[in-house]
Write a structure and sequence with these properties.
The chain is α/β, with parallel strands linked by helices. It has a domain of 170 residues: Metallo-beta-lactamase, Chain A, CATH 3.60.15. The chain contains eleven helices and eleven strands. Helix 4 crosses helix 9 and helix 5 runs antiparallel to helix 6.
Length: 250
């Protein structure tokens, strides 16, 4: 929360509200502290497990913050109370934005912790997939390279996957973000949005789109990281016992 408050100070804006996608600590853990430091702060979300929640929102509900308009999109699956937020400004030349939490990622989708493949299929096709194609996708994590490596396994001949993966690796090497993408782009390389495509169906051995999605998620969950060579200086330091004082303190 203190990093966020420093950004707010530099940008010379006032924090009025927090839109929380779901209750997991890596998305909501700063809520209580921010609420303590900013009296009157409103915290929006769809799950009572969200810290410092003040306003419960529902699917299709619209909120307004100055010129910013927000449509709440209920996408249960990763958690039973997951909410995405679609934002735009009337008469603005800028593309709308989707804050998709852990439902839709660049090149991937969230794990089905508290839901089903049927729910995720609805989320990706009828709810998020139906948004304007120029919508910018701001997801909750930078796992683009990993997602696209799996996408390449699913569709090894997909040139868009190859190009996006090369781009993402370069961005990663330069410590630059790969987020946002656009919804239009996602339909070209994200296997979870391509369940009707023949190569994706062939990879899963399924043709029913829900079953294709279910199999994709299972395969993605079992997709192993390639073994990385240990860092030689670090290994030497470990062998020489240079880490011992830190390990003993723990």
């Amino acid at each position: 929360p203190f990093q966020l408050l420093e950004i707010i100070r530099k940008e010379d804006v006032v924090l009025r509200a927090i839109l929380t996608t779901h209750h997991h600590w890596d998305h909501a853990r700063g809520n209580e502290e921010l609420a303590r430091l900013c009296p009157g702060l409103r915290v929006f979300g769809a799950d009572q497990r969200i810290g410092a929640l003040t306003d419960t929102v529902t699917h299709g509900q619209e909120l307004t913050f100055g010129a910013i308009r927000v449509r709440c999109l209920f996408t249960p699956c990763h958690t039973s109370g997951h909410m995405c937020y679609f934002m735009w400004e009337d008469d603005s030349p800028d593309a709308p934005a989707l804050f998709s939490g852990d439902t839709l990622f660049v090149g991937g989708c969230g794990q089905f912790f508290e839901g089903t493949a049927e729910q995720m299929y609805t989320n990706l096709t009828q709810i998020l997939g139906a948004l304007p194609k120029d919508t910018k996708v701001f997801c909750g994590h930078e796992c683009t390279v990993r997602n696209l490596k799996f996408a390449l396994k699913v569709e090894p001949e997909n040139e868009m996957v190859k190009e996006k993966l090369a781009w993402a690796k370069q961005r990663d090497d330069e410590d630059l973000p790969t987020v946002p993408s656009t919804l239009q782009e996602e339909f070209l390389y994200n296997p979870f949005l391509r369940v009707m495509e023949e190569p994706v169906q062939r990879f899963t051995g399924q043709t029913d789109p829900v079953e294709v999605l279910r199999m994709l998620r299972t395969e993605r969950d079992n997709f192993k990281k390639p073994k990385e060579r240990p860092n030689p200086p670090a290994m030497l330091a470990f062998d020489w016992g240079l880490f011992s004082p830190f390990l003993e303190k723990k």
